[in-house]
Amino acid sequence: MMFPLVSNKRIKDSLTKLIEQRRLPHAIIIEGDLGTGKRTLARFIAKASVCDEDVRPCSSCRNCHLADIGSHPDIEVVTTEEKKASITKDQIEKLRSIAYHSAHTAKRRVFIIEQANTMNPASQNKLLKVLEEPPSDVVFILITPSAEALLETVVSRCLVLSLFPPTLEEATEYLVQNKNIDKETAAKLLAEEKNNIGKAILRLEEKKESIGRAIAHDFFDAIERSSPLSAMLITVQLEGNRGETLKFTEELSEILINKVKKAEHLSETAREYVGMYDALCELTPTLNTNINLSLFFSALTAKLSAVKNK
Ligand SMILES: [Zn+2]
Question: Which of 39, 123, 270, 298 has the most Cβ atoms closer than 10 angstroms to its Cβ?
Answer without folding.
Answer: 123
